[in-house]
């Protein structure tokens, strides 16, 4: 006990002050993009051609953030003339279509948040994570929310072992054919009312595996999704922002 107190005294309070204060992120982190539609047409077309995810619509001058893997190719190619990425980690959406971003603000999640979910789960939200063939980066960046720095439990949100104890599922990965049955069984085992959260480009759209016959082409094609968190992987603070904004 004395050692515990001594350690605490020496190390101080390690939990970040988010959401009261935004912690600094790594300067090479790519967060919310800025789109400049006045960029030359040929630059926009070159970005669309080079995008490995077909996430850029050159005609409509937008990016599908549900497909984007934040590789930075478009920013490098356009030298920031068309797209540049900011360090803003606060983005996510309640509707798939809202992730198609044309430079104006993403609709405020709080406006779209289903008020009854806030009422039901505002004080306590238990989530079961389903890794449906993810590469483990999305999973790791969810896992880290349980560490003292983020301390997800201080908001009444926990990851639990059984779907029967959960209020919802958080899905990562492109949902391979082999994992689809397990995912659907986990969903069925979660009691109503329940929420479904899609984390990462793979889950939202297939990500780098888009078009493969071995995966589902987006979680919303097989389950009703309540919250989409884009990224590859989404930053832990993006996950935290989305969960707090939508449920708290
Ligand atoms: S950052 Fe996104 S939109 Fe840009 S090239 Fe990469 S995947 Fe495409
Ligand atoms: S979205 Fe990216 S980080 Fe997440 S599982 Fe897919 S490939 Fe991995």
What attributes characterize this protein structure?
single chain; 248 residues; alpha/beta; Rossmann fold; five-stranded parallel β-sheet; 9 helices; 15% strand; globular; binds iron/sulfur cluster
Task: Explain what you see.
By secondary structure, the protein is α/β, with parallel strands linked by helices. It is 29% helix and 15% strand. It has a domain at 110-247: Rossmann fold, CATH 3.40.50.12280. It contains nine helices and ten strands. The protein has a five-stranded parallel β-sheet. It has a three-stranded antiparallel β-sheet with strand order 2-3-5. The mean pLDDT is 93. One iron/sulfur cluster (SF4) is lined by residues 134-135, 137-138, 172-173, 200-202, 207-208, 232-233.
- In CATH terms, what is the fold-level topology of the domain at 110-247? Rossmann fold
Shape: globular
Number of helices: 9
Trace the largest sheet across and list its strands: 7-6-8-9-10
Helix content: 25-40%
Element-level helix/strand string: HEHEEHEEHHEHEEHEHEH
* Ligand kinds: iron/sulfur cluster
Any chance you could write out the topology, listing elements then pairs?
Blueprint lengths: L1 H10 L21 E3 L5 H10 L5 E2 L4 E3 L8 H5 L5 E3 L14 E2 L7 H4 L2 H7 L3 E7 L5 H7 L13 E3 L8 E5 L4 H13 L5 E5 L1 H5 L21 E3 L6 H12 L1
Parallel strand pairs: 6-7, 6-8, 8-9, 9-10
Antiparallel strand pairs: 1-4, 2-3, 3-5
The structure holds iron/sulfur cluster (SF4) (2 copies).
The site of one iron/sulfur cluster has 13 residues, from helix 6 and helix 8.
């Amino acid at each position: 006990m004395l050692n515990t107190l001594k350690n605490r005294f020496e190390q101080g309070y390690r939990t970040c002050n988010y959401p009261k204060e935004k912690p600094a992120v790594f300067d090479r982190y790519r967060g919310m993009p800025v789109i400049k539609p006045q960029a030359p047409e040929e630059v926009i077309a070159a970005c669309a051609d080079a995008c490995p995810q077909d996430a850029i619509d050159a005609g409509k001058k937008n990016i599908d953030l549900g497909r984007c893997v934040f590789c930075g190719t478009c920013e490098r190619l356009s030298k920031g003339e068309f797209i540049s990425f900011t360090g803003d980690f606060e983005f996510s959406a309640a509707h798939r279509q809202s992730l198609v971003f044309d430079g104006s603000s993403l609709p405020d999640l709080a406006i779209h948040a289903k008020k009854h979910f806030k009422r039901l789960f505002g004080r306590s939200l238990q989530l079961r994570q389903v890794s449906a063939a993810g590469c483990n980066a999305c999973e790791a960046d969810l896992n880290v929310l349980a560490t003292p720095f983020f301390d997800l439990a201080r908001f009444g949100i926990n990851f639990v072992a059984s779907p029967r104890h959960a209020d919802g599922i958080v899905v990562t990965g492109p949902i391979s054919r082999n994992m689809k049955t397990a995912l659907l069984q986990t969903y069925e085992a979660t009691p109503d009312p329940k929420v479904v959260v899609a984390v990462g480009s793979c889950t939202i759209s297939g990500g780098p595996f888009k078009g493969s016959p071995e995966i589902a082409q987006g979680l919303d094609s097989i389950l009703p999704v309540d919250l989409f968190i884009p990224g590859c992987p989404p930053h832990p603070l993006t996950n935290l922002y989305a969960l707090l904004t939508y449920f708290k």
